Amino acid sequence: MVEKTIRKKIDWQQFFITVIGTAIGVALTFVVSGMLEHRKKEQARRLTAIMVIHDIDNTINVLKDLKEREEQEGELLRSALKQRNQLEEVPSDTLNKVLTILADSQTDFRFDTSKERIFNSDLDTWQNLGNMAFLDNVQSFYHYRQGFQDGLNQSTMWKKPIPDSEFMSFIMGTGWVTQEEYTAALRPFLKEKLYEKQVAYYINVSSSRVNYLTQVIDYGTGVNDENKFLMGITDKELENYVNNINKKGISLTRSKLLGHWILNVGDQTNEYDFHGDHGYDFSVDYSSAFIKTLFFSGKLKMRFFYRGKWTFQSDSLVLTPDYSTADLTIDPSNLVPEENMQDSLDSWVKWYREQGIANFKEMAEKGEKRIVKARLDYSKDKMEWTESDGSVRYLKRKEE
User: Can you say how many angstroms the Cα of residue 70 is from the centroid of all Cα atoms in its chain?
Assistant: First the structure.
C-alpha cells in the first residue's frame, strides 16, 4: 500500500515535470521565434536604410561629376568667347569640342530612381524603419532631386543654346570632307554662334551652374550625414553593402584570361588576344550602314589593329595600348563611286587611312591606360568589364 502511494507520488511528480517542461519549451519557442523575427526586421530595417543612404551617395557622386565637367567646359567656353574674333588661331579639335558642348542633344538628363521606387512602394518600409526624422529626410531629398532634374532639363540656364536640328544641318551640310575643309567651315559657323545672345548667356552663367551644383551637393551631403547618424549606419556597413551588390561571378586569374575574347558593340566586332608574356593584340572589324556622299555610296568596311600590355591591379585588369603599332585597313569593295569619281574615291580611301593612323600616333604620345574591373562567370567563358564611368561590357571567349 505504501509502495503504491509512493508510486503515485512519483507519477504525479513526473507529470508535473513533463507539463512544466513542455510549457517552458513552448515559451522558449515563442521567445526564440520572437527574437528571430525581431532580428529579421532589424536586418531588413538596416538594409533598407543602407540602400537609401547608398542611393543618395550615388546621386551626390553624379552631381560631383557634373560639377567637374561644368568647371572644365565653362573654362573652355569662356576662352572661346574671348577669342571669337581670332578663331583661326584655335586648334580644330578645340573648336569641335566647343561646338559639341553648345549643341543640344535633345536627350533629357535622368537620375536612376529605381531605389526611390522601391522605398516608396514598400509599405513595410515605414513600419520597419520607425525613425520619422530619417523618413522625412529621405522623402525631402527625393523631392528636391526631382526638382533639380526638372530644372536641369527645362531651365534656360541649363538649356544648350544650339538646337540639335541646327547642329545636324551644319554637319550634314558639310558632308564628307577633309579635316582642313571641315575646320574651314566650322570656324565661321562657330564665330556666328558665339555672337548670338543666347550662346553668350549660356557661357556667362556657367559659374552660376557651378555654384548651384555646389549648393545641391552640400545639401545632399548634409542630409546623408544626418541619415547615417540617425540610423547608426557605419562606413564599414556601407562598404560591405557596395561590395556585395557589385560582386558577381569569380575572380579573374592569368590562366583564365589567356586566349581569344570577343566583344560586340553595335556594328563593331572587337577581339582581344591575351598572351602569356603579358602582351595582347586588339582588333576591331567595323562595317557601316549604307552611306552616300557626293562621290561614292555603299558600306564602308574597316579593320583597326594595335598591340599592348596587360597586368592585374587588385580586381582590375589594366590595359596599356601601344598605339605606335596601330594599323588601319580599309576595304573599298562595297563602295560604289559616282560617275567619273573613281579617282576621288581612291584618294579619299587613302586619306582616310592616313588620317586614322595619324590619330593613333597622336594617342601614342599621351601614354593612355585603360583600367576595368574584370570578373568571370562560373563557366569561365564570359567576362564582365566595368569601366571607370560605371558602364558594363560583356566579352565571350572565342571558340578555337
Answer: 18
Determine the Cα–Cα distance for residues 225 and 216; give it in Å rounded to an integer.
14
Quick: pLDDT tens for 344-400.
888 888 888 888 888 777 777 777 788 998 988 888 889 999 887 778 889 999 876
**How far apart (Å, rounded) are the C-alpha atoms in residues 34 and 28?**
10
Q: Tell me how far apart the alpha carbons of residues 134 and 128 are, in angstroms, rounded to a whole number.
A: 12
Residues 62-76, mean pLDDT to the nearest whole number: 93
DSSP for 189-247? HHHHHHTSHHHHHHHHTHHHHHHHHHHHHHHHHHHHHHHHHHHT--HHHHHHHHHHHH-
Query: Model's pTM, two decimal places?
Result: 0.59
CB neighbour class for 359 (10 Å; exposed up to 12, middle 13-18, buried from 19): middle
Q: Are 392 and 248 in contact (CB under 8 A)?
A: no
Nine-digit cell string for 207: 559659374
In this predicted model, what pLDDT tens digit does every residue of 11-33 receive, in sequence order?
A: 556 655 565 555 555 444 444 44
- Grid cell at residue 267: 556594328
Contacts of 195 (CB under 8 A, 6+ apart): 84
Q: Where are the domains of the chain?
A: 43-246, 251-397
CA distance 256 to 236: 31
| Strands 335-337, 296-298: pairing kind | antiparallel
Distance CA 105, CA 85 (A): 27
